[in-house]
Amino acid sequence: MNTEQDLQQSIKNIPESPGIYQYYDQHEKLLYVGKAKNLKKRVSSYFTKSHDSHRIAVMVRKISRIETIVTETEFDALLLENNLIKTYQPRYNINLKDDKTYPWICIKKERFPRIFPTRKKIRDGSEYFGPYASVKVMRTVLELIKQLYPIRTCKLNLQQQSIEEGKFKVCLEYHIGNCLGPCEGHQDEEAYNQSIEEARQLIKGNLNAVKRRLQELMLEQAQNLEFELAQKSKEKLELIEKYQARSSVDIPNIGNAEVFSAMTDATHGYVNYLKIIDGAVIQSHSMEFKRKLEESESQLLEIAIPEIRQLYNSDISELYLSHEIDISLPNTRVYVPQRGDKKALVDLSIKNAKYHRLERLKNMQSTDPERHTNRLMKQMKDDLRLPDEPRHAECFDNSNFHGTNAVSACVVFKNGKASKKDYRHFTIKTVVGPDDFASMAEVVYRRYKRLLDEGESLPQLIVIDGGKGQLNAALGALDSLGLRGKITIIGIAKRLEEIYYPGDPFPMYLDKKSETLRVIQHMRDEAHRFSITHHRNKRSKNTFRSSLEAIPGIGPESIKLLLRTFGSVKGVKAASPEDIAKLLGQSKAQKVAQYLSES
């Protein structure tokens, strides 16, 4: 981006999600990396206020392009910011040249494993859990493990031969009950490893059993009037509930790897790339592809992977993908993970691909509305399995109040947008009582009978607000007009947003974030709003008329004259007998005045 207008457009399209933002200058040099709980608000703040700091003001003037990486949590954004600053040393960031990083819990790979905190990860097969934003939380977990499981703290090399030869002696930890003495053979390896496994589950976050134990201990201490101990147990419980050991941007059990994910819509495909070094995400890049032959996600990856690897001159030998591919990559191992840490990385990549697509669509909508409309119509055609693009679509909704003043509304959408001048409302004429199905059949019949009689164009899509019953009633009306099969008709049930098709007992569920569903929901909501508005107006009008129609000797023309002159029944009541007499004559004026004074 090299213009102020382009930069402002980019800011508008930034998601309101946690993540990190990167500022680049016109020479594509990274100026600054920052984290945010809400990316859109944080980035916007740089451009919507004056800065007291001269250094920040200078940096903002240099920004030419903004890039974001979306994360699952604010803590993940914190870790990712730390990784990127250490990797790229941006000019305007604090220089993080020291080796200090966030702490981890290590289960050492050795006989009778130890469990201890560390800030350094050594690739010797040991397990690392974290990282932890709070050292206090980590130490609480370690203290809890110490209280629950007798794990050794010494660094002795407890080989079986050395134990049998009596080379070791138990220490103070054994005598005070914190260790069961495996160094002298007082505890066998199987029992020790069982304690390690339970501790491992606790560290991973399987805390229900531990929480129950703490709650029981707290209650027992309170009953024994040991309130200080009970308070400490309560504090431990609160910390455990805040405890989180998982991160999707810093995973110690993964070394160097690359992650590729792909997603498609009706016209384009989107590929995201993550670069992982020593288990930490240090780079993200997204690309857009025009689908010329309706290429699948797998085919997009087959095109994008060689291109991106060449772009970054990559020789990393381990790849995690969202879809299977059918190309050979020399000296490379390819995985499509289904669970675990690798799947978490793929999910993070997919999330960034989705946000890249959303950003491109928002940009297209404002800069090239015709292209946006064409893409949306094709997407709706594909999603709803329509024979034609729904350039003209209509939606119906009924409204009544305890079976009275039954009305219906038809809203019209053209090219995915509301065409309010074409909206129509109906007063139900042939149905007595609250019969929603019969009312739907009546208005659908009347609507398309009139379009046929007047030679007007018919819609490509009809949406019925309701489930199978309303849909079948509308379908019967089309049958009687000979239009079945000539117009696609669907129903949308509000509870779970199911899409029903005639003759299909099973509903279709669209992605809750899909544009197609959003358009249908907009149509449904507009039909409901238009119907309710007409219904309220009708009830109000009938209320006004009924008050005056009850006056003996006052006919419809006199009522119209009163309402036109005084505006409402309230206005008529406020009028003087002389003013009413000027309109209706003395005799009728007396009748009106007498009735209103008694009512």
Feature tags:
alpha+beta; 5 domains; seven-stranded mixed β-sheet; 46% helix; 599 residues; GIY-YIG endonuclease
What does this structure look like?
By secondary structure, the chain is α+β, with helices and mostly antiparallel strands. The chain folds into 5 domains: 4-88, GIY-YIG endonuclease; 104-207, no CATH class; 257-366, Nucleotidyltransferase, domain 5, CATH 3.30.420; 385-538, 2-Layer Sandwich (Nucleotidyltransferase, domain 5); 550-598, Orthogonal Bundle (DNA polymerase, domain 1). Helix content is 46%, strand content 18%. The chain contains 20 helices and 18 strands. The strands form 4 sheets. Strands 12, 13, 14, 15, 16, 17 and 18 form a 7-stranded mixed β-sheet that branches. A 5-stranded mixed β-sheet has the order 9-8-7-10-11. A hairpin with a 2-residue loop joins strand 8 and strand 9 (280-290). Helix 12 crosses helix 13 (369-383) and helix 14 packs parallel to helix 15 (468-480).
Percent of residues in beta strands?
Answer: 15-25%
- In the CATH hierarchy, what is the superfamily of the largest domain? UvrC, RNAse H endonuclease domain
- The residue-averaged pLDDT reads 82
Q: What does the main sheet amount to?
A: 7 strands, mixed
CATH architecture of the largest domain: 2-Layer Sandwich
Work out the radius of gyration: 36 Å
Content-based structural category: alpha+beta
Low-confidence segments: none
Q: Which CATH first-tier class of the largest domain would you pick?
A: Alpha Beta
- Helical content, roughly? 40-55%
Q: Which of globular, elongated, flat, extended, rod-shaped describes the shape?
A: elongated
Could you say what the CATH topology of the largest domain is called? Answer: Nucleotidyltransferase, domain 5
Instruction: Calculate the terminal CA-CA distance, rounded to whole Å.
Output: 72 Å
Number of helices: 20
What's the number of extended β-strand segments?
18
Oligomer: single chain
How many structural domains does the protein architecture include?
Answer: 5
